[in-house]
Amino acid sequence: MNNNSVRYLNRTLLLACTPFLGVLVWLLFADVAVVMGESAFPKLESSAAEGQAPQPAANAVEGLSKAQETASETSQSIKKQIKLYNQTNEEMKQIVNKATTQAKRPYEIYDRIITSKLGKPSGTIDTKNIRAQLFYIEADYFKAYALKLKLKTGEAMQMALGGDRYGGAETTLAAVKRTGAFAGVNAGGFADGSGSRYPLSTTMLNGEYVGGFEPSYSDLFFVGLNESNELVGGKFTNRQELDNKNVKFGASFVPVLLKNGMSTTIPPKWQSSPARAPRTVIANYKDDQLLVLVVDGRNEGGSSGATLAELQLLLRRYGAVDGYNLDGGGSSSLVWNGRVINKPSDGQLRKLPTNFLFFK
Questions:
Q1: Of 79, 242, 315, 332, which shows the fewest CB atoms inside 10 Å?
Q2: Number of neighbouring beta carbons within 10 Å of residue 98
Q3: DSSP codes, 187-227
Protein backbone atom coordinates (compact mmCIF):
# COMPACT_ATOMS: atom_id res chain seq x y z
CA MET A 1 0.00 0.00 0.00
CA ASN A 2 1.47 3.29 -1.06
CA ASN A 3 1.61 6.45 1.03
CA ASN A 4 -1.46 7.98 -0.62
CA SER A 5 -3.59 5.00 0.35
CA VAL A 6 -2.49 5.12 3.98
CA ARG A 7 -3.25 8.86 4.21
CA TYR A 8 -6.73 8.24 2.76
CA LEU A 9 -7.50 5.49 5.27
CA ASN A 10 -6.52 7.67 8.21
CA ARG A 11 -8.78 10.47 7.10
CA THR A 12 -11.69 8.06 6.69
CA LEU A 13 -11.26 6.67 10.22
CA LEU A 14 -10.96 10.15 11.68
CA LEU A 15 -14.18 11.27 10.07
CA ALA A 16 -15.92 8.13 11.26
CA CYS A 17 -14.82 8.58 14.90
CA THR A 18 -15.44 12.35 15.17
CA PRO A 19 -19.14 12.15 16.24
CA PHE A 20 -18.37 9.66 18.97
CA LEU A 21 -15.49 11.76 20.29
CA GLY A 22 -17.72 14.84 20.43
CA VAL A 23 -20.41 12.96 22.33
CA LEU A 24 -17.79 11.59 24.70
CA VAL A 25 -16.33 15.03 25.35
CA TRP A 26 -19.85 16.51 25.96
CA LEU A 27 -20.76 13.69 28.35
CA LEU A 28 -17.53 14.14 30.25
CA PHE A 29 -18.03 17.88 30.73
CA ALA A 30 -21.74 17.55 31.33
CA ASP A 31 -21.15 14.95 34.04
CA VAL A 32 -18.64 17.16 35.83
CA ALA A 33 -21.02 20.09 35.77
CA VAL A 34 -23.83 18.02 37.21
CA VAL A 35 -21.66 16.56 39.95
CA MET A 36 -20.31 19.97 40.90
CA GLY A 37 -23.81 21.44 40.91
CA GLU A 38 -25.14 18.70 43.14
CA SER A 39 -22.20 18.72 45.52
CA ALA A 40 -22.01 22.55 45.81
CA PHE A 41 -25.70 23.39 46.33
CA PRO A 42 -27.54 20.19 47.28
CA LYS A 43 -29.75 21.80 49.98
CA LEU A 44 -30.52 24.90 47.99
CA GLU A 45 -31.64 22.87 44.95
CA SER A 46 -33.65 20.53 47.21
CA SER A 47 -35.36 23.43 49.02
CA ALA A 48 -35.96 25.30 45.83
CA ALA A 49 -37.40 22.20 44.32
CA GLU A 50 -39.86 21.92 47.18
CA GLY A 51 -40.82 25.67 47.02
CA GLN A 52 -39.50 26.44 50.50
CA ALA A 53 -37.19 29.15 51.91
CA PRO A 54 -33.69 28.27 53.14
CA GLN A 55 -33.70 26.80 56.69
CA PRO A 56 -32.09 29.80 58.58
CA ALA A 57 -34.53 32.23 56.97
CA ALA A 58 -37.42 29.92 57.80
CA ASN A 59 -36.30 29.81 61.44
CA ALA A 60 -36.12 33.62 61.55
CA VAL A 61 -39.59 33.96 60.04
CA GLU A 62 -40.96 31.44 62.49
CA GLY A 63 -39.28 33.29 65.46
CA LEU A 64 -40.61 36.64 64.29
CA SER A 65 -44.09 35.20 63.98
CA LYS A 66 -43.93 33.83 67.52
CA ALA A 67 -42.58 37.16 68.84
CA GLN A 68 -45.44 39.01 67.18
CA GLU A 69 -47.91 36.57 68.66
CA THR A 70 -46.33 36.94 72.13
CA ALA A 71 -46.29 40.75 71.85
CA SER A 72 -49.94 40.73 70.85
CA GLU A 73 -50.85 38.52 73.78
CA THR A 74 -48.77 40.70 76.16
CA SER A 75 -50.41 43.87 74.82
CA GLN A 76 -53.87 42.38 75.34
CA SER A 77 -52.90 41.30 78.85
CA ILE A 78 -51.56 44.78 79.72
CA LYS A 79 -54.71 46.40 78.37
CA LYS A 80 -56.83 44.09 80.50
CA GLN A 81 -54.69 44.87 83.58
CA ILE A 82 -54.96 48.62 82.95
CA LYS A 83 -58.71 48.34 82.51
CA LEU A 84 -58.99 46.31 85.70
CA TYR A 85 -56.77 48.79 87.57
CA ASN A 86 -58.81 51.78 86.41
CA GLN A 87 -62.03 50.00 87.29
CA THR A 88 -60.71 49.06 90.74
CA ASN A 89 -59.35 52.57 91.27
CA GLU A 90 -62.70 54.11 90.37
CA GLU A 91 -64.51 51.73 92.70
CA MET A 92 -62.10 52.60 95.53
CA LYS A 93 -62.66 56.31 94.89
CA GLN A 94 -66.39 55.80 95.14
CA ILE A 95 -65.96 53.85 98.37
CA VAL A 96 -63.69 56.56 99.83
CA ASN A 97 -66.03 59.34 98.73
CA LYS A 98 -68.99 57.54 100.21
CA ALA A 99 -67.14 56.87 103.45
CA THR A 100 -65.99 60.50 103.62
CA THR A 101 -69.52 61.73 102.98
CA GLN A 102 -70.91 59.43 105.63
CA ALA A 103 -68.19 60.48 108.08
CA LYS A 104 -69.09 64.13 107.52
CA ARG A 105 -72.80 63.59 108.01
CA PRO A 106 -72.77 63.71 111.84
CA TYR A 107 -70.84 67.00 111.72
CA GLU A 108 -73.16 68.41 109.07
CA ILE A 109 -76.18 67.41 111.13
CA TYR A 110 -74.59 68.91 114.24
CA ASP A 111 -73.81 72.13 112.37
CA ARG A 112 -77.38 72.41 111.13
CA ILE A 113 -78.66 71.95 114.68
CA ILE A 114 -76.47 74.64 116.25
CA THR A 115 -77.06 77.00 113.33
CA SER A 116 -80.84 76.60 113.54
CA LYS A 117 -80.72 77.65 117.20
CA LEU A 118 -79.23 80.99 116.17
CA GLY A 119 -81.83 81.60 113.48
CA LYS A 120 -81.30 82.59 109.88
CA PRO A 121 -77.92 84.17 109.08
CA SER A 122 -78.06 87.70 107.73
CA GLY A 123 -74.63 87.37 106.19
CA THR A 124 -72.27 84.54 105.27
CA ILE A 125 -68.65 84.53 104.16
CA ASP A 126 -67.19 81.19 103.08
CA THR A 127 -63.59 81.05 101.84
CA LYS A 128 -60.62 78.67 101.99
CA ASN A 129 -59.69 80.22 105.35
CA ILE A 130 -62.98 80.64 107.15
CA ARG A 131 -66.73 80.24 107.15
CA ALA A 132 -68.37 83.08 109.07
CA GLN A 133 -72.08 83.66 109.65
CA LEU A 134 -73.65 86.77 111.16
CA PHE A 135 -76.91 86.57 113.14
CA TYR A 136 -79.16 89.20 114.73
CA ILE A 137 -80.64 88.32 118.12
CA GLU A 138 -83.62 90.03 119.74
CA ALA A 139 -84.24 89.58 123.49
CA ASP A 140 -86.53 91.27 126.01
CA TYR A 141 -83.93 93.63 127.44
CA PHE A 142 -81.28 93.82 124.76
CA LYS A 143 -80.33 93.44 121.13
CA ALA A 144 -77.37 91.22 120.33
CA TYR A 145 -75.32 89.93 117.44
CA ALA A 146 -73.69 86.55 116.96
CA LEU A 147 -70.80 85.37 114.84
CA LYS A 148 -70.51 81.63 114.23
CA LEU A 149 -67.04 80.88 112.92
CA LYS A 150 -65.46 77.80 111.41
CA LEU A 151 -61.70 78.36 111.22
CA LYS A 152 -60.35 76.33 108.30
CA THR A 153 -56.70 77.42 108.48
CA GLY A 154 -54.28 78.96 110.92
CA GLU A 155 -54.61 82.26 109.09
CA ALA A 156 -58.34 82.63 109.73
CA MET A 157 -58.11 84.31 113.14
CA GLN A 158 -55.46 86.53 114.70
CA MET A 159 -55.09 89.02 117.51
CA ALA A 160 -53.69 92.51 116.98
CA LEU A 161 -52.12 94.91 119.43
CA GLY A 162 -53.30 98.50 119.20
CA GLY A 163 -51.26 100.19 116.49
CA ASP A 164 -49.19 96.99 116.37
CA ARG A 165 -47.29 97.90 119.54
CA TYR A 166 -47.37 97.18 123.25
CA GLY A 167 -49.06 100.09 125.00
CA GLY A 168 -50.81 101.23 121.83
CA ALA A 169 -54.55 101.44 121.24
CA GLU A 170 -56.88 101.57 118.24
CA THR A 171 -60.54 100.92 117.53
CA THR A 172 -61.66 97.54 116.25
CA LEU A 173 -62.59 99.16 112.94
CA ALA A 174 -59.12 100.71 112.63
CA ALA A 175 -57.50 97.33 113.38
CA VAL A 176 -59.69 95.63 110.75
CA LYS A 177 -58.75 98.18 108.10
CA ARG A 178 -55.07 98.23 109.00
CA THR A 179 -54.63 94.45 108.82
CA GLY A 180 -56.97 93.67 105.93
CA ALA A 181 -59.36 91.62 108.07
CA PHE A 182 -63.04 91.43 107.15
CA ALA A 183 -64.36 91.20 110.72
CA GLY A 184 -63.27 91.85 114.27
CA VAL A 185 -64.35 92.09 117.92
CA ASN A 186 -62.77 93.59 121.02
CA ALA A 187 -60.63 91.23 123.07
CA GLY A 188 -59.19 91.50 126.61
CA GLY A 189 -59.33 94.14 129.29
CA PHE A 190 -56.82 96.93 129.76
CA ALA A 191 -55.17 99.28 132.22
CA ASP A 192 -54.07 102.83 131.50
CA GLY A 193 -50.75 104.23 132.63
CA SER A 194 -48.35 107.00 131.62
CA GLY A 195 -50.47 107.98 128.68
CA SER A 196 -50.53 104.44 127.27
CA ARG A 197 -53.14 101.67 127.28
CA TYR A 198 -51.77 98.27 128.22
CA PRO A 199 -53.40 94.82 127.93
CA LEU A 200 -54.64 93.44 131.22
CA SER A 201 -52.62 90.60 132.78
CA THR A 202 -51.27 87.74 130.64
CA THR A 203 -51.33 88.48 126.92
CA MET A 204 -49.80 86.43 124.10
CA LEU A 205 -49.04 87.24 120.48
CA ASN A 206 -47.31 85.00 117.92
CA GLY A 207 -46.66 82.45 120.64
CA GLU A 208 -44.78 84.96 122.80
CA TYR A 209 -45.76 86.68 126.04
CA VAL A 210 -46.42 90.41 125.72
CA GLY A 211 -45.30 92.05 128.96
CA GLY A 212 -44.51 88.68 130.56
CA PHE A 213 -46.56 85.91 132.17
CA GLU A 214 -48.75 86.75 135.16
CA PRO A 215 -50.34 83.96 137.21
CA SER A 216 -54.14 84.05 137.30
CA TYR A 217 -55.52 85.76 140.36
CA SER A 218 -58.98 86.57 141.68
CA ASP A 219 -61.49 86.01 138.86
CA LEU A 220 -59.11 86.68 135.97
CA PHE A 221 -58.75 84.13 133.20
CA PHE A 222 -56.76 83.82 129.97
CA VAL A 223 -58.40 82.87 126.66
CA GLY A 224 -56.84 82.39 123.24
CA LEU A 225 -56.27 80.09 120.31
CA ASN A 226 -53.72 77.28 120.07
CA GLU A 227 -51.83 75.87 117.08
CA SER A 228 -54.74 73.53 116.29
CA ASN A 229 -57.25 76.40 116.08
CA GLU A 230 -58.81 75.31 119.36
CA LEU A 231 -60.07 77.74 121.96
CA VAL A 232 -57.95 77.55 125.12
CA GLY A 233 -59.12 79.26 128.27
CA GLY A 234 -59.11 79.22 132.04
CA LYS A 235 -56.92 80.05 134.99
CA PHE A 236 -53.20 79.30 134.81
CA THR A 237 -51.15 79.48 137.97
CA ASN A 238 -47.75 78.96 136.32
CA ARG A 239 -46.20 79.65 132.95
CA GLN A 240 -45.38 76.03 132.11
CA GLU A 241 -49.04 75.13 132.44
CA LEU A 242 -49.93 77.66 129.73
CA ASP A 243 -46.84 76.86 127.63
CA ASN A 244 -48.05 73.27 127.33
CA LYS A 245 -51.17 74.51 125.54
CA ASN A 246 -49.16 75.74 122.50
CA VAL A 247 -51.10 79.01 122.42
CA LYS A 248 -50.62 81.35 119.44
CA PHE A 249 -52.35 84.39 120.93
CA GLY A 250 -54.76 85.38 123.68
CA ALA A 251 -55.85 87.97 126.24
CA SER A 252 -57.23 88.17 129.77
CA PHE A 253 -60.42 89.34 131.47
CA VAL A 254 -63.15 88.20 133.93
CA PRO A 255 -65.07 85.96 134.54
CA VAL A 256 -65.40 82.47 133.04
CA LEU A 257 -69.07 81.87 132.15
CA LEU A 258 -69.28 78.28 130.96
CA LYS A 259 -67.18 75.13 131.38
CA ASN A 260 -68.03 71.86 129.66
CA GLY A 261 -71.53 73.12 128.95
CA MET A 262 -72.21 74.01 132.58
CA SER A 263 -72.64 77.51 133.99
CA THR A 264 -69.98 78.65 136.43
CA THR A 265 -70.66 80.70 139.55
CA ILE A 266 -70.71 84.40 138.75
CA PRO A 267 -68.64 86.38 141.31
CA PRO A 268 -70.90 88.65 143.41
CA LYS A 269 -69.21 91.79 142.15
CA TRP A 270 -70.08 90.89 138.55
CA GLN A 271 -73.67 90.07 139.38
CA SER A 272 -74.57 93.66 140.19
CA SER A 273 -71.87 96.04 138.99
CA PRO A 274 -73.47 96.64 136.62
CA ALA A 275 -76.38 94.26 136.43
CA ARG A 276 -76.96 94.98 132.76
CA ALA A 277 -74.39 96.23 130.32
CA PRO A 278 -73.05 95.93 126.77
CA ARG A 279 -71.16 92.63 126.61
CA THR A 280 -68.77 90.66 124.41
CA VAL A 281 -68.43 86.91 124.86
CA ILE A 282 -66.35 84.26 123.08
CA ALA A 283 -67.25 80.56 123.26
CA ASN A 284 -66.66 77.31 121.42
CA TYR A 285 -68.69 74.32 120.22
CA LYS A 286 -67.69 70.69 120.59
CA ASP A 287 -66.50 70.63 116.96
CA ASP A 288 -64.21 73.62 117.72
CA GLN A 289 -66.29 76.17 115.86
CA LEU A 290 -66.40 79.52 117.64
CA LEU A 291 -69.32 81.62 118.78
CA VAL A 292 -68.97 85.34 119.51
CA LEU A 293 -71.81 87.30 121.11
CA VAL A 294 -71.89 91.11 121.23
CA VAL A 295 -74.68 92.77 123.20
CA ASP A 296 -75.82 96.36 122.79
CA GLY A 297 -76.63 98.63 125.75
CA ARG A 298 -77.58 102.30 125.96
CA ASN A 299 -75.16 103.03 128.76
CA GLU A 300 -73.06 101.39 131.44
CA GLY A 301 -75.42 102.35 134.28
CA GLY A 302 -77.33 99.09 134.06
CA SER A 303 -80.49 100.43 132.38
CA SER A 304 -80.10 98.15 129.37
CA GLY A 305 -77.90 95.38 128.06
CA ALA A 306 -77.53 91.81 129.31
CA THR A 307 -76.65 90.27 132.65
CA LEU A 308 -73.92 87.63 132.75
CA ALA A 309 -76.51 85.08 133.88
CA GLU A 310 -78.56 85.82 130.75
CA LEU A 311 -75.48 85.29 128.63
CA GLN A 312 -74.88 81.95 130.34
CA LEU A 313 -78.44 81.01 129.45
CA LEU A 314 -77.91 82.02 125.82
CA LEU A 315 -74.65 80.09 125.55
CA ARG A 316 -76.24 76.91 126.87
CA ARG A 317 -79.27 77.39 124.61
CA TYR A 318 -76.98 77.75 121.59
CA GLY A 319 -75.08 74.59 122.50
CA ALA A 320 -71.73 76.15 123.48
CA VAL A 321 -69.21 74.18 125.54
CA ASP A 322 -66.91 76.80 127.12
CA GLY A 323 -67.64 80.53 127.36
CA TYR A 324 -65.59 83.54 128.42
CA ASN A 325 -66.65 87.11 129.11
CA LEU A 326 -64.46 89.62 127.28
CA ASP A 327 -64.19 93.33 127.96
CA GLY A 328 -67.62 94.97 127.71
CA GLY A 329 -69.28 98.32 128.20
CA GLY A 330 -67.88 100.92 125.82
CA SER A 331 -65.28 98.39 124.62
CA SER A 332 -67.87 96.07 123.04
CA SER A 333 -67.47 96.33 119.28
CA LEU A 334 -68.35 94.20 116.28
CA VAL A 335 -67.13 94.94 112.77
CA TRP A 336 -68.38 92.93 109.80
CA ASN A 337 -67.24 93.53 106.21
CA GLY A 338 -65.68 96.84 107.15
CA ARG A 339 -68.82 98.14 108.89
CA VAL A 340 -69.59 98.60 112.58
CA ILE A 341 -72.61 96.38 113.33
CA ASN A 342 -73.34 97.07 117.00
CA LYS A 343 -74.19 100.34 118.74
CA PRO A 344 -71.21 101.27 120.96
CA SER A 345 -72.45 102.61 124.31
CA ASP A 346 -69.92 105.46 124.23
CA GLY A 347 -71.52 106.74 121.05
CA GLN A 348 -68.35 105.86 119.21
CA LEU A 349 -65.81 103.05 119.14
CA ARG A 350 -63.33 102.95 121.98
CA LYS A 351 -59.60 102.61 121.33
CA LEU A 352 -58.40 99.25 122.64
CA PRO A 353 -55.06 97.52 123.19
CA THR A 354 -56.22 94.14 121.79
CA ASN A 355 -58.69 93.00 119.14
CA PHE A 356 -59.58 89.59 117.73
CA LEU A 357 -59.60 89.71 113.93
CA PHE A 358 -60.88 87.38 111.21
CA PHE A 359 -59.51 86.99 107.70
CA LYS A 360 -60.86 85.70 104.41
A1: 79
A2: 10
A3: -S-EEEETTEEEE-S--EETTEESS------TT-EEEEEET
